[in-house]
Each structure stands twice: as structure tokens, then as C-alpha cells.
Amino acid sequence: MVEDAAVIVRAVLLAAARGDMTAARMVLDRVIPPAKDRHLSIDLPDTSTAEGVDEAQGAIVAAVADGRLLPSEGESLSGLVESRRRSIETNELAARVAELLEKKGRQT
After folding, report:
1. The dihedral formed by the CA atoms of 78, 54, 96 and 87, expressed in degrees to the nearest 10
2. CA 84 to CA 93: how far, in whole Å?
């Protein structure tokens, strides 16, 4: 069985060397595995306000545009910043509702 595997491996390597792109892809996928996420280091503005979130999104777009971030990395980072924006928005809406309820309670 081990001998059969060795024969198959040699056949795939030979096919790849002769230009068979499927065989080449099989070999390369084993030799050079697909890239995984990498640690990103990018300075972003404070995202504790909606204005800061907007500035952070601009910084991410600029970093993708000048090649400091890959487009997929920019998209992932932008998604995190967008989650922060939704959190800020939710907290602001909750505060407004609480204020309106308090005002209504004082009027009755």
C-alpha cells in the first residue's frame, strides 16, 4: 500500500512537471498551503464616536489603496469597525428612548 502511494505521488509530480495544471495545483496546495490571516498593525482613529468610526473607515480605505492592507483584510477590518458603529448607534438610540420615556413620565 505504501508502495502504491509512492507510485501515485511520483505520477502526480511527473504530470505537474509536464504542465498538468490540476496536478500542479495538487502539489502546490501541499507544498505551499493557502495563506491564513496575518496579524495586522494599522493605526486607526478612536472609534468611540460615530465621527471616529467614519475616520477609521477612511483610514482603512486609504491603507487598501496604498497597499498596506490587502482588499480582503480591509474588508474584514471594515466589518469590525462597522460593528462598532452599530453598537454606538444602538446605545445612542437606547439613551434617546430612555430620555423620551422619562420626559413622558414627568408629563403625566
Report:
1. 20
2. 14
Written as one letter, the residue type at 18 is R
Cα gap 92→99, rounded to integer Å:
11
pLDDT single digits (tens) 35-54: 777 888 889 999 999 999 99
Rounded (5°) CA angle 71-79-37: 55
pLDDT digits (tens, 9 = 90+) for 67-100: 999 999 999 999 999 999 999 999 999 999 999 9
Instruction: State the chain's maximal CA–CA distance in angstroms.
Output: 88
**Which secondary-structure segment (H or E) carries 6?**
helix 2-17
Distance CA 68, CA 38 (A): 12
Q: Which of 69, 47, 66 is nearest to 57 (CA)?
A: 47
